[in-house]
Amino acid sequence: MSIRYEQQMVLAMLKLYCQKKHGTAKGKLCDECAQLQSYAHSRLDKCPFGDDKSTCKQCAIHCYKPQLREQISQVMRYAGPRMLYHHPLMSLKHLFKETFSKR
Ligand code: SF4
Ligand SMILES: [Zn+2]
């Protein structure tokens, strides 16, 4: 699964989260979530594992700053289960990767 794909997944999850938790219009991001998205995208761009990476949840390095890591974890906890409904193919690929990845 490519870095680009992971970035799309983060964006989709943030949009779900932001709409529900921050009352933002569907498909948009508030300033705080846009900043988090930009941070997550830059981390993924610099990920040392490249396109061979596992999910960030399983990563031994955890390159996020602690506060931002907590913020993104909250988003994942909320949006993860809902992704199955909104983006079933995306979430199944992600689940497959978590289950069968070696790292
Ligand atoms: S947490 Fe790990 S897998 Fe995720 S971007 Fe950072 S180094 Fe890569
Ligand atoms: Zn938001």
The overall number of domains is 1
Helix content: 55-70%
Number of helices in the DSSP assignment? 4
Bound molecules: iron/sulfur cluster, zinc ion
The gyration radius over C-alpha positions equals 13 Å
**pLDDT < 50 stretches:** none
Portion in strands? under 5%
Which shape, going by the Cα principal axes? globular
First and last CA, distance = 14 Å
H/E topology pattern = HHHH
Give the biggest sheet: none
Question: Could you give the topology of this structure?
Answer:
Elements (H helix, E strand, L loop, with lengths): L2 H20 L8 H15 L20 H21 L1 H13 L3
Helix pairs in contact: 1-2, 1-3, 3-4
The protein binds iron/sulfur cluster (SF4) and zinc ion.
Iron/sulfur cluster binds next to α2.
Essential attributes:
103 residues, mainly alpha, 4 helices, globular, binds iron/sulfur cluster, binds zinc ion
Q: Can you describe what's shown?
A:
This protein has helices at residues 3-22, 31-45, 66-86, 88-100. The chain is mostly helical. The chain starts with a helix and ends with a helix. The mean pLDDT is 91. The chain has one domain. The radius of gyration is 13 Å and the shape is globular. The structure holds iron/sulfur cluster and zinc ion. Zinc ion (ZN) binds next to helix 1 and helix 2.
